What we know:
By secondary structure, the protein is mainly alpha-helical. The protein has three domains: 9-57 and 135-190, Protein Binding, DinI Protein, Chain A; 62-120; 196-221. Helices cover 65% and strands 4% of the residues. The protein has a three-stranded mixed β-sheet with strand order 1-3-2. Helix 5 (62-91) packs antiparallel against helix 6 and helix 7 packs across helix 8 (173-183). The longest helix is centred in the middle third of the chain and has 30 residues, at 62-91. The chain is elongated and about 75 Å long.
Amino acid sequence: MKKFLKPVLAAGLVLTASAPMFSAPVAAQQIAQGVGVVSLPAVVANSNAFKIAEQQRPVTYKAQLDQANTRRDQLTAQLNPLYEKFRTDQQANVSQATLQQQAAQIQQLEQAGQRELNQIIQPLALSRAYVQEQIEELLDDAVQAAAKKKNVSLILDPSSGVVVYADAKYNITQDVVNELNTLLPSAQLVPPQGWLPREARQQQEAAAAAQAAAQGTAPAPAQPQGR
């Protein structure tokens, strides 16, 4: 996402234009006329780009989903007898040392299985993050375009807890969705080879900068992430 929305998504407040201060009650009346309420998470979830991607993903990544379901069934079949034996031994007052050993074995298998499943479905997680970033890159443009058309100079986001109540006439969420749909009718579902989510890229850049600082050299420029 562009820098414009980074602080406001955290604060729940979007300022699209500066407004002078007036004394009440004139100030309250004039400000209310230029106030809009937008749920940014709702904008993303209701955008065409997001909904189309959600429909396409199970088809595009069917092989990974089938593989994950098959492996999950195998892990369940492997673990169920161990669960049953543990419960039986527990009721039979088997020694705590034996029960702890069984529990450790079960936990080890569960954790290894979860790691394996996460690895199998990782392409789906990357796809979802890739679509999300494409939407976020244009989210501030959509907000500003809707605010301009609605003559709004102050926008509040109820998802942040800033707005306790607002009349429906102030809600311009759908207006922002419409603008976003125009800017991004659909998103690319499959990320480029080697693509990483923004958080991972930032962590890499921070690690490279720290290493460069320790070595007294300039960090290498970050590789561009294609769409």
